[in-house]
Design goal:
Length: 116
């Protein structure tokens, strides 16, 4: 795995640009090193996180909004204050039912999110 070093110790959200990653979906990569990454993801109603899988463990906190979240064969509606865990290599995806924000934590770093 390529090393990306580490982010600065203090990261001010207003100074980090949004990256559009899909229709109605944008993200800000916040803190990271090679072993962990935190990503702020904003969804507009109708935004989709398509079904996918990766070798990273993922924990996500639902800051606001409402999401139809599928992990493996289970689908649940989650709202602000809820959380979910995705084990490595498990198929998952989300549909935003009400504008919202997710905070994703990945271990290790999502190399595919880093621009070279």
């Amino acid at each position: 795995m390529k090393s990306f070093g580490a982010s600065k110790e203090f990261l001010l959200g207003d100074e980090i640009p949004w990256e559009v990653v899909g229709e109605g979906v944008k993200r800000k990569i916040m803190g990271y090193d090679d072993t962990i990454m935190l990503v702020n993801v904003s969804f507009a109603k109708g935004g989709i996180g398509p079904m996918h899988e990766h070798y990273h463990a993922q924990v996500t906190y639902v800051v606001s909004g409402q999401f139809e979240m599928t992990i493996g064969d289970d689908t649940k509606i989650l709202k602000g204050g809820d959380c979910f865990y995705i084990p490595p290599h498990v198929l998952h995806g989300a549909i935003c039912l009400e504008d919202g924000v997710l905070i994703d934590v990945f271990s290790p770093i999502r190399e595919d999110f880093m621009t070279v």
